[in-house]
Design brief:
Number of domains: 2
Largest sheet: 6 strands, mixed
Bound molecules: pyridoxal-5'-phosphate
Length: 340
Amino acid sequence: MVALNPFPRRSYTDGPTPLEHLPRLSAELGGPQIWIKRDDRLGLAQGGNKTRKLEFLVADALSKGADALITVGGVQSNHCRLTLAAARAEGLDCHLIVEEDLGPEGVGLGPAGANPPEFTGNFLLFDLLGADSVRVLGNGSDLLGEAEALAESLRAQGKSPYVIPVGGSNPIGALGYVDCAHEMLTQFAEAVLQPTNIVTPSGSAGMQAGLIVGLHAAGSDIPVVGINVSRSRVDQEPKISDLVDSTAHLLDLTPVPRERTVALGDYVGTGYALPTPGMTEAVRLIARTEGILLDPVYTGKAAAGLIDLVRQGRFGTDDTVVFIHSGGVPGLYARTQAFA
Ligand SMILES: *Cc1c(COP(=O)(O)O)cnc(C)c1O
């Protein structure tokens, strides 16, 4: 394992998140034994994977004297919700710049107002948690460019803003999942469990990159299978492996073999956040069999991938698969039509 203590860190969760066996889902699918890592139960308002990244990102911001956080995402961004919750907990200002969703067919980079957000789910929580500003731009806008421009104007007013990229996915944010990999390896040892695969949603790539680096650092060869939520395999894998390389570099590790990065693009459907039949089936199945809620944008599509890979025989009865539940459940209430 690699020491993370040289990096400043805040603590937003008490202890490790649970690692649970899913016996009814495993029996229903008739394939591998499936376990779930409950990162939906991380701290900050309603938890989810961004909490782990923010422990390092917000600590970095504080160590640099920041008094405001700026970040970007979709209108239902879990990352924006959790960045705002962390800002509230730390007494920092927080500004959000978000882009509207794609239209129903996944096409068109609409102008602002083409697909206005509903006042529900995470978008509701931006208001309740008292964001200092929320700007809604058209789909496809240059969010990070706008964030840098806002940072510049805040600096001109004497503030010290800190810009966090989409999904908190840079080497500092990925440290949260290097740590999660170590946390899981300890849990596997305690449970005398030998997972043959870890299956995770893959979006802005910080979670999967961090997991790969953390396993590599610990000398574990458990493969991490990413299920993409927004990109094809050829577009996603270089994003992940670039972040794997820069995170490994930050930690002074030996290079990570490129083959460790696997991210399947078969379960995206027509685009980011747009529902698929596999997603609705997976959300309903895991709710009914295990009483666990997934979300429609990330974990629902990743679980659809897991289920399909079991049905294809890619994971057999001798396998033990750990599925990462990365949170996102508040977004369920913003996408009820997918289930109607
Ligand atoms: C952001 C997010 C992901 C994807 O994680 P990345 O690090 O962006 O790849 C998965 N699940 C949920 C609920 C998220 O909010």
